[in-house]
């Protein structure tokens, strides 16, 4: 996986002969200059090309050794000791939040205020906390929509990480109002309290804010679809193209982009120290459910769980538009490593937006379906592979 600020991403060449019309994260960025003030970077300034260790880490002194011991022996990418933090994790009970809490408890000296409406995925950490975690993690059951405790908990923390969101594609069409409220309206007080109380914020967004490519409007057999300028997105230059208002599938991407703009504006006008994270197809345990097995019988999970459900039930794997859309899957524990770098390197991460994904792990949904079918090596599965190539739903 890679960890790269959007303002300094190099050009990425597309490897396939026929690029897809809806490719959201390919872009070319000129190499900019780093921020002149590392303690509070100008939100309009550019960043280093990627977070990496300094060529000459600081030399440890006696005082530095004592400081390093107090931080649990952790150092940042410049060799400085990392001071223990109190971190308010909003959405701690979700897929990403649960893995982040595990990482913080297992490998750092930091303290976590875990906020969510459910704690099923972190029950092993909080109900009750194991003896070795006593005093280091506390679960607060609350809904950020209407709980007066939110500002007080943010004030108690050095850093707030906001993971709260409705981010299941099946909900975007069926629950557009909830999607917009969850991803924009409900996030407003979090941004406000962090800004007013001078607290650092790491806000989780989405790769969907990139919208559509220009090439998506060309006929499928048009020769210009193979030209990079029609499918490579340049972060600071490409037009931002979303679907029409009647296509409520875009409610999620639009809400996420608007809250990104608000966070960035708070940094520019009021000095909010922020980092924005755009995950690209993070996968792993606790991400999703198999309908009727470890989740509700109704509802549509994401593509991996959806295909797994079809295979378990020996049903055809249904492909939207022939399965031409692409994914860049990243294992959750690799992605959390990137998040921890942002947490412990504020001088490098503040004021920047990071795309976290694996450009060397691209696969079409059709290719994914074929690979998953091959993994299910039972003879009975041979008919499912046939269904994969024939069952195409143009939705």
TrEMBL record:
Q: Residue ranges of region Disordered?
A: 1-76
Instruction: Tell me where on the tree of life, at the top rank, the source sits.
Output: Eukaryota
Compositionally biased tracts (Basic residues)? 47-59
- What Pfam families would the database entry show? Epimerase
NAD-dependent epimerase/dehydratase domain: which residues?
Answer: 87-357
Q: Which SUPFAM superfamilies match?
A: NAD(P)-binding Rossmann-fold domains (SSF51735)
Under InterPro entries, the record lists: Epimerase_deHydtase (IPR001509), Lipid_A_modif_metabolic_enz (IPR050177), NAD(P)-bd_dom_sf (IPR036291)
Full protein name: NAD-dependent epimerase/dehydratase domain-containing protein
User: What is the species listed in this Swiss-Prot or TrEMBL entry?
Assistant: Aegilops tauschii subsp. strangulata (Goatgrass)
């Amino acid at each position: 996986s890679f960890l790269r600020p959007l303002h300094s991403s190099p050009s990425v060449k597309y490897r396939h002969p026929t690029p897809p019309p809806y490719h959201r994260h390919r872009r070319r960025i000129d190499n900019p200059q780093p921020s002149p003030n590392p303690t509070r970077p100008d939100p309009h300034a550019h960043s280093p090309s990627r977070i990496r260790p300094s060529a000459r880490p600081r030399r440890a002194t006696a005082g530095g050794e004592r400081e390093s011991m107090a931080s649990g022996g952790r150092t940042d990418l410049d060799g400085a000791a990392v001071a223990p933090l109190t971190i308010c994790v909003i959405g701690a009970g979700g897929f990403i939040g649960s893995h982040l809490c595990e990482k913080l408890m297992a490998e750092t000296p930091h303290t976590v205020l875990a906020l969510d409406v459910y704690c099923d995925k972190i029950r092993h950490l909080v109900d009750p906390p194991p003896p070795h975690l006593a005093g280091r993690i506390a679960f607060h059951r609350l809904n950020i929509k209407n709980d007066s405790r939110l500002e007080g908990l943010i004030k108690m923390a050095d850093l707030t990480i906001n993971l709260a969101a409705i981010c299941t594609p099946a909900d975007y069409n069926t629950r557009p109002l909830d999607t917009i409220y969850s991803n924009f309206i409900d996030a407003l007080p979090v941004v406000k309290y962090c800004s007013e109380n001078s607290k650092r914020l790491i806000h989780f967004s989405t790769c969907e804010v990139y919208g559509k490519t220009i090439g998506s409007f060309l006929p499928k057999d048009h020769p210009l679809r193979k030209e990079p300028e029609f499918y490579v997105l340049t972060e600071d230059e490409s037009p931002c193209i979303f679907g029409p208002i009647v296509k409520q599938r875009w409610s999620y991407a639009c809400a996420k982009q608007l809250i990104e703009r608000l966070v960035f504006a708070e940094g520019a006008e009021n000095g909010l120290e922020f980092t924005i994270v755009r995950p690209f197809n993070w996968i792993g345990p606790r991400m999703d459910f198999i309908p009727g097995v470890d989740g509700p019988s109704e509802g549509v999970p994401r593509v991996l769980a959806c295909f797994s459900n079809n295979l378990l039930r020996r049903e055809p794997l249904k492909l939207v538009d022939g399965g031409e859309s692409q994914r860049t899957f990243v294992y959750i524990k690799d992605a959390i490593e990137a998040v921890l770098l942002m947490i412990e390197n504020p001088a490098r991460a503040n004021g920047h937006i990071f795309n976290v994904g694996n450009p060397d792990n691209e696969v079409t949904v059709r290719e994914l379906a074929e690979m998953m079918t091959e993994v299910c090596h039972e003879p009975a599965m041979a008919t499912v592979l046939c269904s994969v190539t024939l069952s195409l739903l143009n939705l």
